[in-house]
Amino acid sequence: MTDFLFGIFSSLAASAIVLALGLLRGSRPAWWLIAVCSWCTGTGLGRVYRHQSSAEQDIARDLGRARWIKILTGRGNVLTREVFSPLWSGELSPESVQVVLPDPDTRRDSWLDRRSHDVRRFDPGFTPDLLRSQVRTNMDYLAQATRAQRNVELRSFNLPNTCRVIATDRAAYLTFYSASAHGRNAPCLYARAPGLLYAVALQLFDSAWMNGSPVRRPEQQS
């Protein structure tokens, strides 16, 4: 848990970087300045996307050349979209794929419920069990789609639902969730390996993974 808390504090520092770089609006001088700052500070920050959906084309490219993939996500909707379909169909075959989502079955002291409570403050269409239902649907989809793939592991976690991490052996994409907006509207950071932000991304993933529980897929059920 100490490692997890360190990761959270590190993510707050990264969020401050996002706010500062967001003022630059993604112009060419901004990318040049980002590269210079990244080199000077060792953060490994390569790009900042104003919205995480803007990164999907680049994510698809990086998935296609990844040796391994680690995914930590709060809802999992992106995992059912086209960007990930080559991975679940077997068109891509990295050595290992690890996916961890919030546990939709935890009822007592659930961090998923806490996130759901935050979302209901700004989205009136969000009923108390909607987020839980969406996570379960996406988890069931992945369990079915990857049932024959031995290189894919699924787990669920009950820890602070504060970020999304999509990491490979080359780079990581980080989205830090806000208590006042959907994750899809949050900025996304691209961090190269090696670097501070890349290490933070892996630390956040590893903390959730180590505290997670395996998700049983159809061929594993009795």
Q: Key terms for this structure?
A:
222 residues; alpha+beta; Endonuclease, Chain A; 7 helices; 8 strands
Write up this protein:
The protein is an alpha+beta fold. It has one domain: Endonuclease Chain A (Endonuclease, Chain A), CATH 3.30.870.10. It contains 7 helices and 8 strands, in the order ααβαβαβααββββαβ. The protein has an 8-stranded mixed beta sheet, sandwiched between helices. Helix 1 crosses helix 7. The longest helix is centred in the N-terminal third of the chain and has 21 residues. The protein is globular and about 40 Å long. It starts with a helix and ends in an 8-residue tail after the last strand. About 6% of the residues have low confidence.
Short description:
The chain has 222 residues and is an alpha+beta fold.
Please identify, by name, the CATH architecture.
Answer: 2-Layer Sandwich
What is the CA-CA span between the terminal residues?
34 Å
* Shape call: globular
The CATH class designation is Alpha Beta
- Provide a count of the helices: 7
The description of the largest β-sheet is: 8 strands, mixed
Rg estimate, integer Å: 17 Å
Let me know the average pLDDT.
82
The CATH homologous superfamily is termed: Endonuclease Chain A
In the residues, how many domains can be counted? 1
Secondary structure layout plus pairing:
Blueprint: H1 2-22, H2 28-41, E1 45-49, H3 56-64, E2 68-72, H4 85-89, E3 96-102, H5 111-122, H6 130-145, E4 152-157, E5 163-168, E6 171-176, E7 188-192, H7 196-210, E8 213-214
Parallel strand pairs: 2-3, 3-4
Antiparallel strand pairs: 1-7, 2-5, 4-8, 5-6, 6-7
Helix pairs in contact: 1-7
